[in-house]
Amino acid sequence: MVKIRLKRMGAKHTPYYRIVVIPSEKRRDGSEIERLGWYDPVKKGNEQYKINLERAEYWMSKGAQPTAVVRSFIRKEKAKKIA
Questions:
Q1: What's the CA gap between 10 and 23, in Å, rounded?
Q2: Residue 56 CB: number of other CB atoms within 10 A?
């Protein structure tokens, strides 16, 4: 099974994350299939994350399961497009 999840990057105490498509058998920081965006928990507001919604929807149509955090990013991004 393929998952859409966060991959930790950055240094100690200053993390940022990449939103990636990765096989569920791989470890968190393993090799990814595709990079869909990023998330920076240090930043605030609209600058905190970016996700390629079209590619995320493509992978979900192929059976990829997003984690809870990534699912919330997708939901927020869809709401931005509608508004």
A1: 22
A2: 24
Are 6 and 19 a contacting pair, CB within 8 Å?
yes
Helix, strand, coil percentages for the chain (3-state, nearest 5): 35, 35, 30
d(CA 17, CA 20): 9
Q: What is the H or E stretch that residue 47 is in? A: none
Q: Which domains does the chain have, with CATH numbers?
A: 2-82 (3.30.1320.10)
- For residue range 9-30, what is the model confidence (pLDDT) as tens digits? 999 999 999 999 999 999 988 8
Reported confidence tier of residue 45, pLDDT bands at 50, 70, 90: confident
| pTM listed for this prediction | 0.90
Parallel/antiparallel/unpaired status of strands 2-11 and 14-23: antiparallel
